[in-house]
Fold Amidase AmiD.
Amino acid sequence: MPQPPVRPLRALELARRIEAGDLTPAEVVDLCAEAIAAREETIGAFAALDLAGTRARAAASAATLEAAPLRGLPVGIKDIFDTADLPTEYGTPIYAGHRPVADAALVAMARRAGGLILGKTVTTPFAFLDPAGTANPHHPEHTPGGSSSGSAAAVAAGLVPIAIGTQTGGSVIRPASYCGVAGYKPSFRMLPMVGCKTFSWSLDTAGVFAAGVADVAFAAAALTGRDLRVDRAAAAAPRVGVVRTHVWPQASAAMQALVERTAKVAASAGATVREIALPPVFEDAFRAHALVQDYEAFRALAHEHDHHRDQLGPLLRHLLDAAATIRPEAYDDARRVAKRARQTLADLMDDLDVLLTPSAPGAAPRGLGSTGLSTFNRLWTLMGTPCINVPGAKDESGLPLGIQIVGRFGRDRAALEAALFVEQLVSTESGG
């Protein structure tokens, strides 16, 4: 059954209230604790929680936290990042009770920026496709997506204002779309992956979840020290290319209509909008993604495959068994295809700010036996470009639909600005 509407905690609003003295970090922790008590049993977003420790840190260091970039806001960390004070189990019984001796680099960055690590969010095992049991906050019979299942669901349910996830295929953008929140996959390697369990070293990318585009931009700016905030001025009308790609027929009618409607509304609001036909190299790159991912996963997870194969999920076990047959020559050719496609994309976007394309094939599928498909994400992950899921739309059943903004490599702020422009249009169209 659909759940009563839940309101995500807006990171930027909370930070402003803390800065103004209207709210303390400890009080924000209490807001999270209340939501967790009310909803976590149904949703199952967290693999580990430290409410008491987070409250204590918030109270003991209030003045320091309130002056820090993240203002003492609670943060959820996907359970494939190492944490020294919480278990890190990678979503698998193989690592039950595992306690790293050091934080991952991104976790340390969050702490240094004044973030309070509230807990570890559920990941699918080793961040692959075998589902982990987390439910969609909008409709618990539907998947929240994966592999960053807990991160997206925790933000959508108001359990935490900011969460960290990762994307190798579509594991930030797709769950953000399914759960109706903003998801930001930065340009490749903007956020460090040191201390994160590797699946594919050429593709794994850390990302951020928050309620809206301005919130993820605020969080990313606070984490990195970069000028990424988009809340201080009106969003300028961007130059937009509408991209359907060769997999466009796999999008639902509602998703196709959302892309087309958004393009028309953006043009009416002053954006320069034109259709973009991708050259054939992008179909080759789409196929190359799987070769690169699978070849690297067979090596990154060699120990687990060789010593704990029976404890791997069935989908991951099948992938690794099949990946053993991929020849180095095929992998090297796939990498060359990816390089050509990236060069072509840079030329194609020379007079564009962003591309507009689906975030997912449609709304979250019913059932918790699947995390959905990364059909509309994996190409852009391979390209290393910034991607943002813009929330705000819904399908005819009331489930969230997201639209994806793809930026130019290294032009993350421009991509976030365009995403905010689109979000404001989608919100107006939806009556938000």
Remarks:
- The chain has a mean pLDDT of 97.
- The first helix runs from residue 11 to 20.
- The radius of gyration is 20 Å.
- Residues 75 and 162 are 5 Å apart (CA to CA).
